[in-house]
Structure prediction request, 316 residues.
Amino acid sequence: MCPRCRARAPAASGLQAAGRCPKDGAFFVSERALARSDGDPLLGCTLGGRFAVLALRARGARASVYDSRVVPAAPEGAGRPTTAPIASAVLKVVRCDGPRSEAALALAWEGEVQRLASAAVAPGWLGQGCSEVGDEPRFAAFVASERAPGASLAEPSEQSFLERATRAARALAALHAAGIVHGDLTPEHVFVDAQRSAATFVDFGSAALDAGGGGERARLSGATPAYAAPELWETGPTRAADVYALGCVLVRMVTGRPPFSAASLEGLRAAHRSAAPPPLPDAVGAALGSTIAAALSKSAGHRPPDGAALVRALEA
Prediction:
């Protein structure tokens, strides 16, 4: 269905073959997508001349994530492309006042970090840019990437806890080896696929380039408080803070909740700094429990210093 004029895609051809609405040029979207976010001005639009916005996946305080498809380029002199979109992609979009706005530059930094990350630990980077979309705010900055394979650590899985934990740690080791600190590891940002030896990370909005122990050039702060290391409340992201965050993720996986909670941000900060983590189920085992406890040490110097050290501890 066209999100602008409500014309329906030709029934015989289906959404994939129909492509654009002949009346106004918008891409057809599913009725379910339209019902979920009716009135969203980006539905049916093409960003960067390449990515057709087909459905809203999630909306956050700073950005929205959309399902999209890559639009094949039109032959030179043929005008705008009229064929159906192909090859699915995920778009992270920030509405902004222009390509030089703070929000657009922050998202551009995130895209650059993702592009630098190895394809083994991050979805493939497909492009980024800033497009004028007409209404206020007039622009939409975006980063386009492939879908992360597998399921997030927030979802149930038939794989063993140790197997998923080790794959996540291997991915963290590879990320740190590439000189990148993630800065915001949560269960929703870590994907594990049974066909891959390492996990895949998404959402590099709080990432930093790292020269050894301290994050550099962090452009977009904002680690999720429930997974933020005690020192991260006052300093930039570090490898040790990533280890702490992954430790919190592992606790969430086996207990159903993060290790610390509070009624206020200040209370949560205090819990990270001084409260003892909850006991883990007996099924976790003493050795694995000790590794998780080390990852959750209040002092960064008492944790495994990076992802590689965490892998060694998990595989010992």
